[in-house]
Every structure is written in structure tokens, then in C-alpha cells.
Amino acid sequence: MSIQLIILIIYFFFIIFLGILAVRKVKASEDLLVAGRNLGVMFVAVSVASEYMGGLGTIGTAEVAFNQGMGVIWYHIASACGLMLFGFAFAHYYRKYNVVTVPEYLYYLYDIKTWKAASVLNVVGYWFFTIIQMTALGSLVASVTGLNLQISVLICGLAMTVYLLAAGMWSVAFTSVAFMFTIGTGIPLAFWWVMQKEIPLLSTSAGVAGYAGLANALNGAGLDAVSLFSPFSLGGMAVLGYFLGGVLGIPAAQATINYSFGAKNWKVARLAPVLAAILILPLSIWTGSMGLYARAAGLTTNPKLALGATLMNIHPIIGGIGIAGIFAALISTVAGILFGCASIMSKDIWQRWLHPNTDDRYLSRWTRIWILIIGISSAFGAMTLPKILQQAFFVYSIRGALMICVAFGLWWRRAHPDAAFYSLWVALVGGIMYQFSLPINFQAYFKLHISVWCALLSLITFVIISLYSRWTTQTSNELPPFINFRRDLEEKEGNKND
User: Fold this and answer.
1) pTM of the predicted model over 0.70
2) What's the rounded Cα separation, in Å, for the pair 217 and 37?
3) CB neighbours (10 Å) of residue 209?
């Protein structure tokens, strides 16, 4: 048994132990769903940051760098911009109105049909996103253990489901600090070791360390180092897609916003994402560089295994700490996304839509049941998913449509419920057609990133319908009691401050 595997096993049982400790915090459904709305700035910031250091930010960025170069750094730059936008412009609205899910917030901004459309859209998107993250987690375990990739994905998916069943958001919050410490030490330490100690050992590096030695090694492998090192190696449209995916997707991302829902107050909800943005900025540089090293050194032919292969072929203790850091990032992200999907399914669709009389005890039970259903089905689905980061932008594009609805609902008086409803469905249908080339290859024809495509569809649909729709007596009667809801909330907040 390798040293890396021993370190990983010890760390895994430590995380499970922390998750079990969180069970004593759960006394009601609000504890399970939003940690009793009692999370401080440290818990919220590191939980949010850990999500964007997960499968996409580690395995996925190394995979893209292995194939296309360091243009992947824009992934975390764009995500950081999206987090800052969320913190400054959106977080306090979500937290002040004491909602639990993004669709629930859209209910108060628009109407019932928009809330139902948003619920379905979120469940579809996050179910798919859970599959993506489980694929990344399984690829790391496959690199360490030598197991078949599909078997590793299945084992990891089932283990993550059991971990999250214990205490919901409290499980994630309890382990987030351990995750961030491991990520913040393991990944940069492994990056430093590769650049300073491993690259000079390559025969094609001319004994030079750092990026100069990596460039020599890439050229020696018959590759164009200048092109691979370029920040625009992915092309301008891909960079634009990253920014639209991050800036539009994050402010309406249930897995991110979950932690703001659980914040102690709106001030914590606003500050924490800004701190998280600072924490995630350098990650793509570290993981992308190790992905390029794996290619230059010929460690693997499978891009998904690039980061794991690198960590398994360096000093075993350094590699083991690095693997623990990647593993921590992956667990935190899988847990957050799986839990976000289950929250919407149990709170919006199951309780509010299908079973409005469900009490608190049954809501807690059904939240756990949906964690189990989504977790197991995602584990099986993850066994066949290709291209981690590319598939993720399909989900980001759907989330972008939600953000457009939230932004217009907050700041444009002409925003109409019909516009929100149809823009969501247009984005979903258009995204599916674009992603799976139905009935034609839209990307080859229009030359657009899927994030750009879905954002344009949603924006155009929303603006046109809002401009040409008129408010009627029937429309007004279908609106939720937003004014009363807001007044009652302000009274409640006032009583707390007295």
C-alpha cells in the first residue's frame, strides 16, 4: 500500500468523524437545511471557497491545461469575479428575506409558475452537476488506488451520500475548516515541489527548474510551450464563456447561496463571498501547471488523471498531502452541490408543491431521502461522463438564466412574471440543444460558447416579453404576497434588534 493511499485513508476517516460530530447540531429541518442560520463569516467563507476548489477547480482545470494550456486560469478569475458580484450585490437580499432556496426567492419576486419552473431547472442542473463532481472525485481515487475509474466513481459517490446524510449543512460546515487548511497547504506545497524538484529531473528540461524548465520539457515532447503558456490558449470565446458562466452563474447558484442562507446575518452573508473570492484566485495556476507537467513527463494519456498521476509520481509524503488537499476540495464541492439539489427537491418541489402540509419532522426525513436518491443515481451516472469542465458549463449556463431573472426582478420595474418563466425554459431547452447538437451542431455554426449562447437566449427572451407584456388584474391576483411578506420580515428583524 502506497504512502499516498495511507494518507488518503486516514484523512477520509477523519472527515467522516467530523461529519458524525455534526449530528448533535441537528434538531429540526432548519438545522439540516441552513445550519439553523447560525454560521459565522469563517464558516461561510471557507465553505463557499471550498466549493470552487472542487472537481472543476482541480481535476477539471488540470484536465483542460493538459489538453489546451494555461488559458484555464480564467476559470478561477471568472469565479472570483462572480463571487464578488454575489457578495456585494445579491447576498444580503437572500439572507434578509430568510428564504431557503433560490426558487423560493423567485416566488416572491415573480409568481408561482416562475417558482415551479426555477425549481425544475435547478434540480435538473444540480443533479447533472453532482454527477460531474462525483466523476472528478472518482478520477482522483482511481489515480491513487489503481482501481478502475468507473468503480472508483461508484464507491466515492456512495460514500459521499452516506457522509451527507448525517447532518446536512452542519456536516459541510463542521468539515469546511479542515478542508480549507488541507487545500491551502497540500495543493500549493505539491505545486512548489513539482516546479522546483521534479521538473529539473526531466531529461528534456535541461536541468532547469520552474516554468523555464517546464517550457524546455514541453518543447522536448514536441509541443509548443509558448502557445500552451499563453493565457489565451483556449481562445477568446472560451474566456468569455468562463466569465459569463462565473459572473452570471454564481449569484444564482444554490450550492453557493446555501451558505449565505445559513449565515448569522446579512452582513456575514455579504462579506464571506468576497473573502472566498480571494482564497480561490491562484488555484488554477497551481493545478494547471501540474497538468502541463503530467503531459510533459508523459505520466498519463488520460487528461482526467493528469493531476492524480502527477501527485502519485512525486515525493510520496508531498504527493500524499497534495492528494489529501484535492480530496478535501472534491468532498466539499460534492457535498455542497448534492445538498443544494436535495434542498430544492425537498423544500420547493416536495413540500411546497406536491405536499404542502408536510410538517417539520417529515421534511427532515424527506430531505435525507432525496439526498439518498440523488446521491445514488448520480454515482451511477458519473460512471459514463466525459470531459468534466466542458460539461459543467452546461450547468453554469442554466444558472445564468436564473441570475438574469433575479437581477431584473430586483432592479427593473418592467420585469414581468411571464418573462421570467419563459426565459428559464428557453435557456434550458436551448442549452440542451446546444450541448448535445440537436438537431444540428450549433457550436460549429454559431461559434459561440454555451454560456454565451444561453445568456443571449435568456436575455433576449426576458427583455422582449417584459416590454410587450401588460399587467392585468389576473396577473396581479396571481402574484405572491410579497409586500406582506416583506413587512412581516422587517417587523421580525426589528424585534430581534430591540
Assistant:
1) yes
2) 51
3) 16
Cα distance between residue 28 and residue 364, in whole Å: 7
Average pLDDT over residues 44-57: 75
What pLDDT is attached to residue 463? 94
Predicted confidence (pLDDT) per residue in 54-111, tens digit: 667 888 899 999 999 999 999 899 889 888 988 888 877 777 766 777 787 888 788 8
Q: pLDDT tens digit string along 348-375?
A: 787 777 777 766 666 777 777 888 888 8
Over 80: is that where the pLDDT of 116 sits? yes
Q: What is the mean pLDDT of residues 366-390?
A: 73
Is residue 486 in a domain?
no
Secondary structure, 3-state, the chain: CCHHHHHHHHHHHHHHHHHHHHHHHCCCHHHHHHHHHCECHHHHHHHHHHHCCCCHHHHHHHHHHHHHCHHHHHHHHHHHHHHHHHHHHHHHHHHHCCCCCHHHHHHHHCCHHHHHHHHHHHHHHHHHHHHHHHHHHHHHHHHHHCCCHHHHHHHHHHHHHHHHHCCCHHHHHHHHHHHHHHHHHHHHHHHHHHHHHHHHHCHHHCCCCHHHHHHHHHHHCCCCHHHHHCCCCCCHHHHHHHHHHHHHHHHHCHHHHHHHHCECCHHHHHHHHHHHHHHHCCHHHHHHHHHHHHHHHCCCCCHHHHHHHHHHCCCHHHHHHHHHHHHHHHHHHHHHHHHHHHHHHHHHHHHHHHCCCCCHHHHHHHHHHHHHHHHHHHHHHHHHCCCHHHHHHHHHHHHHHHHHHHHHHHHCCCCCHHHHHHHHHHHHHHHHHHHCCCCCCHHHHHCCCHHHHHHHHHHHHHHHHHHHCCCCHHHHHCCCCHHHHHHHHHHHHHHHHC
Does residue 20 form part of some domain?
yes
In a domain, 470, yes or no: no
The number of domains in the chain is 1
CATH number (domain holding residue 41): 1.20.1730.10
290-345 tens-digit pLDDT? 999 999 999 988 888 888 889 888 888 898 888 887 777 777 777 777 777 787 78
Domain boundaries, position 300? 3-388
